[in-house]
Amino acid sequence: AFQANTSDLWVTGADNWGSTNLGMMAGTSPSIAALPDGGYVVAFQANTGALGINSNGTPSEWTDTNLGMMPGTSPSIGPLPGGSWQTAFQANTGDLWVVGLDSPGNTGLGMMAGTSPSICTLPGGGWQVAFQANTGDLWVVDSDGPEDMGLGMMAGTSPSISFPAGG
Question: What pTM does this model have?
Answer without folding.
Answer: 0.92
